[in-house]
Design a protein that fits this description.
601 residues, Glutamine Phosphoribosylpyrophosphate, subunit 1, domain 1, three-stranded mixed sheet, 20 helices, 21 strands, disordered N terminus
Amino acid sequence: MRLRRPVARKLAVLAATSAVVSMGAAPPTSAATDPVEKVPVAVGYGGAVSSVDPDASAAGIEVLRKGGNAVDAAVATAAALGVTEPYSAGIGGGGYFVYYDAKSRSVHTIDGRETAPLSAGEDLFLENGTAIPFAEAVTSGLSVGTPGTPATWQTALRSWGSKPLGKLLKPAEKLARDGFTVDATFRAQTASNEARFRNFPATVDLYLPGGELPVVGSTLKNPDLARTYAELGREGVGTLYRGDLAEDIVDTVNEPPVDPSSGYNARPGDLTAADLAAYRTKLQAPTKASYRGLGVYGMAPSSSGGTTVAEALNILERTDLSKASDVQYLHRYIEASRIAFADRGRWVGDPAFEDVPTKELLSQKYADSRECLIKDDAVLTSPVAPGDPRDPAACSAGGTAAPTTYEGDSTTHLTVADKWGDVVSYTLTIEQTGGSGITVPGRGFLLNNELTDFSFTPANPAVHDPNLPGPGKRPRSSMSPTIVLDKHDRPVVALGSPGGATIITTVLQTLTGFVDRGLPLVDAIAAPRASQRNQTTTELEPGLWSSPLKTDLEAIGHGFRQNPEIGAATAVQRLPDGKWLAAAETVRRGGGAAMVVHPAK
């Protein structure tokens, strides 16, 4: 039995999910009393949107229906996610935007990652020479970086958009004002954050209505965010970087509005008006890997997503995964991930501060020098030492290994395509589920805790850590928005996922499932996941944990630990005759929302 279509889809079957093809278009964004239906796959014409939330996907579809392009729809979808997925994304965070321009058949990217204050040093999270407890650092002003999401929207719209920001924010503004329907996932995420949310009155007022957890099926409104969106639409995003909104953010970070009766010590940050005014997004070239004759484009540093996905694919290039058994496929995928993460930890940081060998990490020559470490009948011992991409030596692993640092997993991803063939793959985040937990009073959004993505202390004291804090520095990310083109530079598929460091493995596994194993896109997304990040054990979702494949892999030497849910991918695929297929999760995070403008018959 093999992980290939159409008969054998073992991982998809193990997921105990079923794909439902939507033959209906998305209705206009509706009131919370009439929620939009979630379906994981849709096929049709005129463009497509896939996100985790049906109201957000519907907002993007409405923009496409009214003549907007993929960039316009991506901004509208992202703004709506800031309402309905506020613990994952919002204007208090940042992200990475990958855009395919059909006219020029070229890929462009925007680095909208948050930045540390200009006063930040390597000791940002140290007190008396000792690292602050991670949980305390998260829920503090110290963790908040300058938001990049509004600037990302502005850069994208100025570069490739066709509609004004104010018009694109209207669906999200209405959604915030009228409210959205609370689902089980939102309630569960609120419950997991309830204790720390109660330290901040503004957060309690917004997300614990009446002091209680929101009830599934109830309507949650956010009039403060509606007013904030209206202000951004009216005055432009400059108000968040140089105006009244900027002042509110600075005040909140530097004097976190804690409930005095809580006794909580929310350490203040040192974000200034100058930090916000100095913020800039970066338009930069994408990463590129050639895999099975396809061009795989991703996000260059400060994200590690593009280089790490590319290196793992280059390592796998020498193995015909379409003919491998399920055990051989998973073994090779796990080992390639392990090696790529070893190099990521040693070499990738903010290139404005670090000498990142991006070109060398992307080279097939370097991947070949690392691929020969993999054995069919044995498992590499983690942590694997990094190689030196600047001076590749066959089967060399003579560097000093460093463990993979923790990254929060509350992120979201959206993918969009329009009728002209333009495509957007956009991952945005506020880091942890609920970010810092600190709501800007009167503004209706949570601030990020992205600075905890920095290493608090060197991951390995024996070698330089490229991910230590610095003034104005971007913390390393694993976000991996990806667009794949064919040999004629036309889109094949675009995808991405949330999940912290597991984003990289989710994108890698989904891509190899789709490209190599022949799984339909929705099945490649649904397949139960494994995630190896240069650690002693590999994480498995329940579908693999309870599978005979686990026993077979253990016989080779693999060790495992269980993770109930890894990632929540969304994707779009170009089909013949101008059709698009949008695909999303069938179960994870309650399932995703795939929509098209005009459904195919």
